[in-house]
Description:
alpha/beta, 8-stranded parallel beta sheet
Amino acid sequence: MGYHQIMFDxxxxxxxxxxxxxxxxxxKSELGLVGGNGWLSIxxxxxxxxxxxxxxxxxxxxxxxxxxxxxxxxxxxxDMEEQKRIFCFLCKVAKDMDRVLSVxxxxxxxxxxxxxxxxxxxxxxxHGFNSSYEVAKKIVQSNCFISLGPGCIFLRDYQKITTLxxxxxxxxxxxxxxxNVLNSLYAKLKEDSKRDVEKEAIEIGRxxxxxxx
Length: 213
């Protein structure tokens, strides 16, 4: 993917036009997308139609470019021990299969980072980052990446966070509205950070997906 091409969405959901977007599958109804063209990951979270871990592992074995996620820890939901069990298991799968891991985390970032470090997952994106500069810095120092969505401009530490390496996402269903939001966000982050954010995002993509990106 060259720098001249359409800006890439590093976390989106299946919609009308999935091209140039990393689509996170978290519903059984979308399993048919796996095996087609496009960038995909598969995960499970506590508040949606869960996909069991055996299904995830089977699909990962069949499709070498399929990523893991979104998965994670969310303090708003009960049964944290079960969340941790699933998170640890799928972190190990991501590590063993050398896959990109997309992490959803609410109020449990330190815990998630400890698990990721202990297991040794190498390619990690904390999607939809919406915390402080201090937390963002810890993620980056742990050799993981943050991905910023449209709400990032309202963060207290927005300007400081944009001094760190970051990816850009919509976290929306793909289509015209998603592309408009994404293009506006790229332009805003480029203006405020005074950096070539598209070029930097593509470089991170190539680091994560190697020659396949």
